[in-house]
Amino acid sequence: MAKKTSRNVGKFTLTRKTKQLKRSYHRPHPARTIVTRSQSHISGSYFHKLPAEVFRMILDKLSVFEISVFSMVSKEINRYIVDHISTLAWRNKMITENFHHNTCLEERLTIGHYRDLGLLFKRSTLLLPTKDRLKFVFSRFSQIHCFMLEQCLTADCIGFPTYGVFLQTLIAGWDELECHRVFSFLCDLTNLLQKIEAVITGKPGVRWHQELQLRLFCRQVLLDPWPNQPDCQFWLALLLKPWPMVSQAHLLFILYGPLLPEGTLGWQDLVERGLPHSALWDLARAILLLFGKLEVQDWTATSMLTILEELFVIPLPWHMENVARLLVLCGNSLCYTFLASKAVNGRLLEISRLIVYIILVCEKDGYHMSWAVKLVQQICKVFSTVTERFLFIQHLENMFSEVTREIFEFSITGNHFDDRETFQSLCFLLDASARFHTRFLHMFLQ
To answer: Which pTM does this prediction carry?
Structure first.
């Protein structure tokens, strides 16, 4: 009886479990909690159910970059974020003004932070028209003194470079029409055109502080942040185009001319003595940038030559070595175009003196003398007759003697004989003459 009882209990237990499983199998499915993307658009985002204070707490925990990504989730989220970053509390917390006396690491962090801010404002205002975007963005940044012209006097301020990174990030990818609107908006905001006019119509070097401020703002905010040459060319053309040629040359010098160690522009140094190629490289780079593709910004060869002619007499005619060095830095094409235009107009004495100094620069700066020989050969082809070519060569040879005599007389007049720089120039010129004529004769004897 005991065995039977245990067998029956076992059977009863098994049957009971089976029935329970069957009953659970036939229960209805629970209500679905997963919402599809299309359904979520209809019903709205989950965040609208949160209290505003909780949502602000969530945003406060996110970095600027994370908020910029979050702003692209939906229109509703974007609207919440725009309202959030419009508050004074958020502005005071996130738009920091730590631009002075920073270490290299702090500078990188500040610039990186403003790059993220540029991305945030770019993404959060994506749905607004350009005019409204600019008003919304710059109303938050126009109150920062270090971003404005002539507002900050601290020498090591990084406000302009930071502003440039922010602006470049904000408008990257915008079309040309939108960038024109950005430029007009910035001009109105900073009175940029009025400040440029006040500087370029005055005597060079008198308003040295305004010149330096203008240079720093235009270079660090509008020009230098762009890694691509077409973008930089676009902004440089916008800065130059409103002005006549002589003023364009003046402004070009302010933006890219040589700086003295104390931070002022070397107007007079270009007139009085020859400067090293490092002092003129920025100016040469700007000229190449501006005139590299004349058709891009509707520049012509005539406008290019006119600007160069005006540049070489600001504030007075430059030392000829500086003219020659700048042309050499600008390369063969521009150098030939400049000299050929003078040859066509019969200005033989002028181009002969300039070529002598180009040969001197080649010797001083280590350029191969065959380049100067080929340049002279190209200029010879400008003249249509043998007589004109001979006259050109005769002027060139006479100019070698004249320039050599001038440098020698300068070195012995007024106790300048011990001036090592002048004596070295004389030695360089003698060596340059020998190397040039050796190459020149070799070309005809081949």
So the answer is: 0.83
